Amino acid sequence: MTKLEEILRSYARMFNPTDDQKFIAKERLSTCIECEYWVQGKVLDYCGKCKCATSGKVFSPVGGNACPMGKWIR
Fold first, then answer.
1. Does the pLDDT value for residue 38 go beyond 90?
2. Is 36:42 a contact under the CB 8 Å cutoff?
3. DSSP-derived pairing of the beta strands 38-39 and 46-47
4. From residue 35, how far is each of 9, 18, 50, 71 by CA, in Å?
5. CA atoms within 13 A on the CB side of 70
6. Which residues contact 66 (CB under 8 A, 6 or more apart)?
7. pTM (2 d.p.)
8. Phi first, then psi: what are they for 62, rounded to 5°?
9. Which contiguous run of DSSP H or E holds residue 57?
10. Of 47, 48, 49, nearest to 57 (Cα)?
11. Is 53 helix (H, G, I), strand (E, B) or coil?
């Protein structure tokens, strides 16, 4: 999967998530908020390591590998 495909699929999931996807996204966001690389921006929160917006990134279909720091379990 290319990075563009991952981004598009992440946002598609964000706008119409299943209950399981919502649960996983919530777990991932909690991990991001605790991370030293997470940036709470004025307009958008994002990962300081990969520069992705966390609102969409937490819905990544790539699984735990989507976190550049390897902090996501799934």
1. yes
2. no
3. antiparallel
4. 24, 26, 13, 9
5. 0
6. 6, 57, 60, 72
7. 0.92
8. -75, -15
9. helix 54-57
10. 47
11. strand
46 - beta bridge partners?
Answer: 39, 53
Tokens at 16, concatenated? 């119409």
CA distances from 46 to 18, 20, 43, 58, 70 (A): 23, 23, 10, 10, 16
Residue 8 near residue 60 (C-beta atoms within 8 A):
no
Q: Is 56 exposed, middle or buried (0-12, 13-18, 19+ CB in 10 A)?
A: buried
In the numeric block, the tokens 């990969």 are attached to 50
How far is 27 from 22, CA to CA, in rounded Å?
9
The pLDDT of residue 1 is above 90: no
How confident is the model over 40-54, as pLDDT tens digits? 999 999 999 999 999
- At position 10, the amino acid (one-letter code) is S
Q: How many residues does the chain have?
A: 74
